[in-house]
């Protein structure tokens, strides 16, 4: 059954305290078993939002989820940090999208990734290995991991399949750092977060005071405690917490600013309308699942509907539709409790249908 998108005039009522979205997230959070923070908005900013539940177990059970709770964004790092930094380089004429890496980036020359393009990396059609396993394959030395990612064989010929892999973002992160002349955390802060007033957003590890308002993720056997303020993703953790694939922490308050900027790019940041327009269109040549650059067409929708999403493994999600002129976010820390995905998938799909209409239930 399809669901028509609610008109813009209905969004304030949908997003009102105790309204349809608030009830939906409250019920869904109980089923998921984790606290949840949500917000929706348009090109002018946040229209409404809410929070339900607590941050976790033990000492975290005393803390309610809220718009100032920091969440481990996991793979949302790809769109909140890496994607706009790549866009800044592209808009400056320094990041060719369709030239094979080996022709213009010396570290890639002579390696299998030399035939891959930046567009393919961003669209997950580069054919890179679908798994990481960096420590087992390359050890713990950062230079050895970087060299290993660059030298790794391809899994399949570029451009023949859409296959989501963190290796693409890790490689692109190295490339962006090389061209940008600074680590990714500094580039993102300077080019993305500070210009948008995203004062709560940063890469970890967070200091203890910041970690106190951070949603905990999974239990870590090495430390004997739940990770909190330290990135959950093992590859990003191995890379010191700063990577293109994961590592950033943020709040609903900051992410609302980011999504508003995607709909209505402000003057100032070195990435903006040209890059957003280029990215939020089909980039996978008819292959499924259809993707833009970094962003995925929302499961259960058709590309013509123009609703994009990115999920994070920890339980986070961002949606944006330039066609409808609206955005939405839903933040949980599902992995704190378990890795069962279906209840969260059901909540995400119901939430997306309520905000954007369209489509039918689907897995992420």
Description:
This protein has 14 helices and 11 strands. It has helices at residues 11-14, 20-32, 77-91, 101-104, 118-123, 134-138, 142-151, 166-180, 184-193, 208-211, 234-238, 252-263, 273-279, 342-356, and strands at residues 36-42, 45-52, 71-72, 202-203, 219-220, 225-226, 248-250, 296-297, 307-312, 316-321, 326-332. It has a 6-stranded antiparallel beta sheet with strand order 2-1-11-10-9-8. Strands 3-7-4 form a 3-stranded antiparallel beta sheet. A two-stranded antiparallel sheet has the order 5-6. Residues 360-364 have low confidence and may be disordered.
The total of helices stands at 14
Order of helices and strands: HHEEEHHHHHHHEHEEHEHHEEEEH
Helix content estimate: 25-40%
Structural class: alpha+beta
Could you outline the blueprint of secondary structure elements for this entry?
Blueprint: H1 11-14, H2 20-32, E1 36-42, E2 45-52, E3 71-72, H3 77-91, H4 101-104, H5 118-123, H6 134-138, H7 142-151, H8 166-180, H9 184-193, E4 202-203, H10 208-211, E5 219-220, E6 225-226, H11 234-238, E7 248-250, H12 252-263, H13 273-279, E8 296-297, E9 307-312, E10 316-321, E11 326-332, H14 342-356
Antiparallel strand pairs: 1-2, 1-11, 3-7, 4-7, 5-6, 8-9, 9-10, 10-11
Helix pairs in contact: 2-14, 3-8, 3-9
In short:
With 364 residues, the protein is an alpha+beta fold.
Overview features:
six-stranded antiparallel beta sheet, three-stranded antiparallel beta sheet, 34% helix
